[in-house]
Amino acid sequence: MNRISVIVTNFNKEDYLERCLLSLLNQTYQQFEVIIIDDGSTDGSGEILNAFERMHEHIHVYLYEENKGAAWARNTGIEKAKGEFIYFLDADDYVAPHTLELMVKHIGQAPLLVGMISPTPIDQEVRYEEELPASVSFLKEKIRTKVFRRKSIVNILMRKDHVERLGLSFHEELMVYSDLTFFIPAIQNVEHIPYLQVPTYFRGECYDPIDRPSLRYLTNDVKIPDYLSMFIYLMNEFREDSFINSYLSVDFINYYYKTMSTYLTNNPEFWDVWFDSLVECVNLLDKDSIENCGFLTKREMKAIRSGLKRTVMKRIAQRQTYHRLRQALKGRQALYKELYRSVFKKRPIKSNRIVFESFSGKGYSDNPRAIYEELLAQGQPYEFVWILNDVQKEIPGNAKKVRRLSWKYYYYLATSKYWVINARMPNYITKRPETVFLQTWHGTPLKKLAADMKEVRMPGTTTERYKRNFYLDSQKWDYLVSPNDYSTDIFKRAFKFKKEVLDVGYPRNDVLYQKNNPSEISSLKEKMGLPKDKKIILYAPTWRDDEFHKKGQYKFDLKLDLKGMREQLGDDYVLVLRMHYLIADSLNIDGYEGFVYNLSSYDDIAEMYLVSDILITDYSSVFFDFANLKRPILFFTYDLEKYRDTLRGFYFNFTEVAPGPILLEAEEITKAIVSIDHTSQQFEDRFEAFFEEFCHLDDGTASKRIIEEVFRNESIK
User: Fold this and answer.
1) pTM of the entire structure?
2) 291 lies in which domain range?
């Protein structure tokens, strides 16, 4: 007997469906049917759903050609449900194996039972205890608002006769907030609501929050009018219910304060579109709720009631200014950010000022350095500003050195015509329209980037937040430098970048063509403190997204056999370590002095390429650059399967394209170096093919071509 009808609604969720449905099939309680309403999907959902239906008799799939919205799909699912209970599950979410069993066990005689909605852990697989405690609490009316706040119908077990008796349905004209039109009348007269306080339901992460966002991640220009319509509908429906009236009024004021008024300030074109609905909403508010809100908000509510649009706009601006000033007094960075927004960005822009920054101020390096030095060599009449964490660092030329996140940092960003930067910027740094942002980036991608990544496994963020923040940053860029045609295609897609890509090669590689001679190499070895009578092995691995102590603190386990390498190679070679900047400070090489040199803090890795005879790396983009020198490359990929299949994924078959041997054990590295001439001969043809595809644009003139395209052309506009 199917006691539960699980209603799954789906629209273009092919990437999530299998996980969702398998979580149902793995339930410890099996007396249920699955009703899947496919609401006009245009992706591969239909094929996946049909396959599940063929294999499992209690799965019933209904495919519809027209997309009518989640509310319609859920109402359709209710009509088809035959169970004693109904349970809603979104296709991009999933449930724990014990979910249905615990819910049936603890609902008792109540008309409905509510369970927790948990965010998906990103740093580990979800693990479940074999036996979970039967932890149930009953929410009395005085805290029933907690149940209201969820604004979602998922993970609630509800008796079908309760739905039928009350004639419950979802308001189909609403896109985002229809759940409340079902849920509020469902609990209106329920005295006690059992609430299951163990993890049972997990929100799946949205893999494409920009082009295919979940309903909860739609933009405010869609969500705000939907909220206004929902509020008007429910306040009219429950005009006589003081509890619901009060809850909805408080919720509206909070939504107006935190979301709506801010959005209207930043997008004034919507004032005329929404103002009449806003007035109608405020006139429906519970009077006590208005009286209990802050003085400034109360003034706005009264002005809205009177239909005084200009007065409302003025009072919102006054309130926001007041709160920004209060926020600015909370600390130095808060003050600087406010100065940037309200003072510095109103100063005139200097048309000949260029700001340079490399890897968030960590050094004087990479593509920005190469462009800067070419501008110096040409004697260009610009005012140069370098953003650095260490302003004591000596750099050539007469550039101003400005400490990152100082007040000068914000001032020069606000007043410079050009930004030359190779990494992402903080989201709170907004660019003026007159400023030209040259994003040089910092590598040829092997690992999937940004929007091309499926899931993001990094500390302190989620997939949605990471991808959305990346997108917001890339929309600031005016030019993007690409090292080869292969990268150009990826950058456009992964960064969702639609402006001008400069296919000129990487400026940082110019030096590999300009200084690849014995005299320069000897000078560089002396500068780095390396012995001139020995060959150089450069070890430059990437970082692992999931290896960290906490946000901002990454770790790395150096898996090289340093003892064995020194014993067999120490007479002829030294080993130079160049670690990713995120992990550069986490190494300990005590006892290997004279053989191992940690030059991770050395600014210019291109100069390190020049002195190196052999490169050992893994998935780092350094091998694309080093290949310009046509010197041997060894790939130490001890975690290849995990990195390729779990963490990032690759853009091409790495093992077939890599211009050198794939080595999984530390002992193999020493053997390959001992017979390096033979190793190189084995990969000669593959290396040549690799060079033609990925190094074809580099010729030592990338910086000159960028200067011609960006600075000279922009000055003419």
Assistant:
1) 0.88
2) 220-328
